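Give me the fold.
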Amino acid sequence: MAASLEISALVDGVKTLTLSNPGKRNALDTGVLEALQVALRDDAGVRCWLIRSADPTVFSSGYDLSALNRFPEGTPLPDERLGEVFDALMSHAAPSVALITGPAYGAGFELALACDFRVGSLNARFNMPPAKLGIVYAAHGLQRMVARVGLQQARRIFLTARTVEATEAKNIGLLDVLGEEADALMLAAELATNAPLAVQGMKRGLAMLETNAEYEALRRASFNSDDAREGKAALLEKRKPKFSGR
């Protein structure tokens, strides 16, 4: 069967993207990357993305090795496309949650890193194999790792190519939650329930090294939004707010 990305209907603001490539342990290829980019653009009403695997025994074995041939000067390397799509996921206004219930290797590992949150079961494990493949990994992947676990842990993960088991992943901050599907669904629902403009603005602010005019504009828009008025009213009236994203 060919690789695919199954896209669910929107449920209470959460859209689920499911990796499926059963013949190659969910290896990522250009088709899956294109489908992911298209899904991110078709984002009407999306308040949170949940990324998971159709096969609970594996998240993704990485980039399809059959695509790794020789690349003459002037031709793009395959991980350049990976970087573009994962950057789009990271910079998307809506937060994202990765549910990892099996191995996440190479590009699959980086896909998990590109999500805002990672929920992993005890069967989750992570590996970056480029040192054993004779490949220098792309700078965007190195930077994503440093942002999640710090420079020294990133150095150890890349240079030793040693597998990180679930408990250690939780201890070093690679996993936010050590749990199961229900925990990922609960987190996604929690993110989707909050005021979209506030979540989106603060996600953008957290990605910046310092505040700037763009962030201040986001802040002012949030203070003047319908959601801000609804949030205040709901608090005073001791009820659950009904946010509209406006």
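The longest helix spans residues 78-91.
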